[in-house]
Amino acid sequence: MAGRSVTRLIRQPAMVIPSVVFPLFLLAVNAGGLNAATNIPGFPTDSYITFAIGFTFIQSAIFSTMGAGQALAQDIENGFFSRLVLTPMRPSALMAGQLAGLILLGQFQALLYLAVGLAAGAHFAAGVAGYFVLAALVSVISIGFGGIGLIMAIRTGSGEAVQGMFPIMFVLLFFSSMTLPRNLIEQDWYRFLATINPVSYLIEAIRSLFIWGWDGEALALGFGIAAVLAVLSIAFAARSLQGRMLK
Amino acid sequence: MNSAYFSSAWAVAWRYLHNLYTKPAVFIPGLVFPLFFLAAFAGGLSAVGDTPGFDYYDFTAFQFCFILIQASALAGVFVGFTIAGDFEQGMGRRMMLATANRSALVLGYAIGAALRLIVVWVIVTGVSLLVGMSIRGDGFDVVGIYTLAFLANVAALFFSAGIALRFRSLQAGPLMQMPVFIALFLAPVYVPQALLTGWIEPVAKVNPVTALLNGARSLMAGEPTGILAAYGVAFALIAVMAFWAIRGLRKAEVAG
Prior knowledge:
Chain A is mainly α and 247 residues long. Chain A has helices at 2-11, 13-33, 48-77, 80-85, 91-119, 127-156, 159-163, 166-174, 188-196, 198-211, 216-246.
């Protein structure tokens, strides 16, 4: 199943390219358009691209959510899933297989974004060891959001319903600390939303590797939230999958 | 053009609006997205208004001009989706058979888009005023802002209609949406043009959306500058895109 997931990903560039290119486009636009924001007193760095690149990793992980869900929904819609149910395959193996392509894509994106960011002038304060922490964090985040995509696919069995999650994901992304640090957000209501939004902490964990190097609190919060998200989403997806297999 | 021509156009417009307002799943995103962007930009980025050199009088008004033009342009793109959907389902072909001069179809969709736009404008403007946006321009300036937004709508509509009539499939949706989205974001969205740095600065300089945006913002501030350029760019875009749409219509006619 893992091999199939990876092969399918490679053979369908239309599924991969948008989730890779669109975050880079937004990074380029924000880095150019918001560079002046580094002049705000208290801004943590003088390079906006160093600040903004953390968001790019999260954005691509969230976009990949739809990819994972879409692939499984497609299997359900075209009857492949029903044939799998007749085999002795365990639900956990099916989910691990579905997530394999997503994790691989996440690693490719992490490497690509880091390379593009460094080439565009971003600083990566955590150094070589930081890359491995970044890769690990991206993997856990990919599993967490991939699990949400799987839940949607299993429960609805519809690719259209999975795509319908896009606006919700977009709102989660934008009402976070993606464009400014939370302490510099002037509007109280917006700062409140960014503070209760778990996506803020995922962005800030990755951002910390770029700006400060090793910020234990930011990394602990990022890994903690990503791990909780991954455990909950996979557990719920497994439960949903067992329910669908019994039908 | 006779009364039958306008009667056909009106029938297409009425059908478009009827379908739109009876399908909330189609209508609501066009309303919610501008409000979402308004909240995200005007709310989340208001500290950017304190940046040295940011000399605009009100950050919400600064963002409102972008949101208004963006919402208007995307409303035009959404009509392109409808045209593509109509042709995919065979309705477009039936409408072409029933219309002597097929440009009435494009005019009908354009009328529908304009009427839809009024609702979007009322809601976006109402919410902006409720959250404290101030307008320094006088009545003529305000009319000028909405006229620019309307022209952006017409240009985007003709562009997406040209794509829709060539592909006649909803799968061409990204081809309609992405170029407009990219052009909008390659303009001075977050800060005035003078504060842009890096690669985006020369790109924004040649981007036609920049002229529209700068014109609208100057009208909003009651200090009109670059208005001729803004209207000149808007009408030039409409002329080019109208040609593109009519050529698309001819291709759809040839395809039968």
